[in-house]
Design a protein that fits this description.
- This protein is α+β, with helices and mostly antiparallel strands.
- The protein has four helices and two strands, in the order H-H-H-H-E-E.
Length: 122
């Protein structure tokens, strides 16, 4: 029985994440990269729901927590991809303001992706 008091998103957020990440998945189709891309897409989705000031704070914390093995080029690439995904979210789903609080991701060797997310309204 569906809880009539629960606010469900007007779209399936997991499908939106996959659509948002689709250009990167197409560019980097290996299983290991798809997992990273989906995680980055979820992070970007959530960050897109914040203010620009908060986004900059989150970005700085992210950079500060990156492993020492990452050089400036690696970090710049991650930030560039994050910015790309944030812009895709704003372009494709500007009025969808649901925070992703957890997810379950499975990627088959064939590249088939299964994603489930849990969200809360912002």
């Amino acid at each position: 029985m569906m809880n009539k008091y629960k606010k469900s998103p007007p779209i399936k957020i997991s499908d939106a994440i996959l659509r948002m990440a689709e250009p990167l998945i197409r560019k980097y189709p290996k299983r290991e990269r798809i997992v990273v891309i989906i995680d980055l897409a979820i992070f970007s989705w959530n960050v897109s729901l914040t203010t620009e000031v908060k986004r900059e704070e989150i970005e700085k914390k992210l950079i500060d927590q990156m492993p020492d093995a990452f050089d400036a080029t690696d970090i710049a690439s991650i930030i560039e991809q994050t910015d790309f995904l944030i812009e895709r979210k704003k372009e494709l789903y500007p009025d969808i303001n649901y925070l992703i609080v957890s997810h379950n991701l499975s990627v088959e060797d064939s590249g088939q992706v299964s994603l489930d997310v849990n969200t809360i309204k912002q």
